[in-house]
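User
Take a look at the entry that follows and flag anything odd:
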Amino acid sequence: MGERIHAYFVSLGFSHEEASDLHLKYYTQYGLALRGLTKHHDVDPLDFDRKCDGSLSLEDMIQPKPWLRKLFEDIDRSKVRVWALTNAYKTHAQRVLRILQLDDLVEGLVYCDYAEPNFSCKPEAEYYIKALERAEVADPSKCYFIDDSRGNVQAAIRLGWGHCVHFSEHGLEVVEGGRAKQIDNENLSNGAKSNSKVPVITDLRQLRDTWPEVFKTEV
């Protein structure tokens, strides 16, 4: 994905160095590089989606994991409803959920609607407000939220979302200037500072201990 986004910046006439700088700047400022491109460079987000997200051979990159499906199956649906919140377009999100064999375990999807002239994305407040409206949730303090961007998590906390967790993948690889390097995704979280009150997990299975009340009790 990083390679394709970098190539898209370059296709707009930027040098490799400029493309890397703008990619990081827009991600840091808006939570999504595409938001900067649509705001400042009159880019068609659907064209971006076709050439970046839509061009990925996801079936060769990700596979279903039995433990992940079991994690979703063990969520107690009498207590909670499961929704997916993404900064991608709906087609990409639907592909990912389908490949991971989780689509039948997710009630609803909140996504960046690239068809809208001024779509919202995490960590913008409008995105979270839209999510609550879509899921028909009146009290955000009852929401459970996990995200791999610390900035997105802190935005949810500021809006009163009650049970928030940061999923921190260490060793994530990104492309800058056409070259890959290892990073910690905490460093790409809108410049947000660490919040010691927010639980941090490195494996989704740790949610069983972090949110034990939302999982079925084994008999």
User: Anything to note?
Assistant: The radius of gyration is 18 Å.
